[in-house]
Amino acid sequence: MRILIALNHPSQYYLFKNFELEISKNGYSVLFVINDKDILKILLERDNKNFIQLSTKKSNKGLISIVANRGLELILQDIKMYQLVNRWKPNILMGTDISIAHIGKIKKIPSVIFNEDDFNINKLFCKAAYPFSNFIFSPLVCDVGKYENKKIGYNGYQKLAYLHPNRFRPDIKIVEKYINIDRPYFIIRLVSFTAGHDIERQHGGITTNLLQKLIDKLNPYGHIYITSEKPLINIFEKYRLEINPLHIHHILAYAHLFIGDSQSMCVESSVLGTASIRFNSFVGKISVLEELEKKYNLTYGINNLEETDLLKKLDELLSIKDLKLIYKTRQKEMLQDKIDLTGFMIWFVENYPESVRIMKENPDYQYNFK
């Protein structure tokens, strides 16, 4: 059986990394198909994965340019994916790229779209992909709009496909390669909002002035490290975290606190038991983060217009004794509810299409994968 997995972002590789490792051992052939985004290609090369790059990253400036480029890129991506599918002849299409839904429909190959953004947050993607896909793999808490009949809902998060204790054990020795652990350390993440759910560039996060205020508050308590998609001005370069990107989750796991305008790394920090604060205008709109905040108390969202609230929350967390122990306890409580997503994905593919019937008749079957 041949499985084609189409990816657009480095975090999506992590989602499928363990799945590919295990299902390949069972005799399945897997091909990753990627777009050029950040370190995605580097990750695949370092892990010696079988992959094809269909497109390269383009610079978009302004809303009109973004819409025009995205439309053209989608057409070109569909053409390239169609040609590749004709050559490689996969039995199932999986991943996060819209083209697999389109080409799967045309070629009558089952397609499974993975998404943990709610429909209203990522409308362009969902409207382009969901009508054509066979199934939507999404956390139970996520809203997939009128396509609920296609949803394979699981009690978990995409990040648990690679950060569940069955899949990942943080290693302090790896952390020590980069960080002096004689004191607590803090991670600040700065992102460039150009994702599909921010096509209008309206979701700003941490500014230069606010970054300086955060550093001033954190300095007395420990070491500070910045990971950024943006260029940093000279005064902040000394804080830049230079690491092997494969090691970032070990560093997040042992951090005292994470602050960022990144959704993904806030979720990763939370499931690793590290307190996190996210600062952007998506606050209150994303079901996965709302659950992690309201049900499990593992993260906090502050709207990017409320700078004072962010600084107050930071003061509050810095004043808590045994902060790390408290959040590790909360992490354990969360994990008791969640499944091992990788194990569930492997079962679903290996038993397809019978697995679809089982999940529709008995959704609790997923709890066999804990």
Architecture overview:
- With 370 residues, this protein is an alpha/beta fold.
- Helix 1 (10-25) packs across helix 15 (341-350), helix 3 (63-88) crosses helix 4 and helix 8 runs parallel beside helix 13.
- Strands 3-2-1-4-5-6-7 form a seven-stranded parallel sheet, sandwiched between helices. Strands 9-8-10-11-12 form a five-stranded parallel sheet, with helices on both faces.
- The protein has two domains: 2-164 and 338-368, Rossmann fold (3-Layer(aba) Sandwich), CATH 3.40.50; 172-336, Glycogen Phosphorylase B (Rossmann fold), CATH 3.40.50.2000.
- The two termini are 26 Å apart.
- It has helices at 10-25, 40-46, 63-88, 98-107, 123-129, 160-163, 172-176, 208-218, 234-237, 248-254, 263-271, 287-294, 307-318, 323-337, 341-350, 354-361, and strands spanning 2-7, 29-35, 51-55, 92-95, 111-114, 135-139, 151-154, 185-190, 223-228, 257-260, 276-279, 299-302.
- Mean pLDDT is 91; it is low at 62-66 and 193-202.
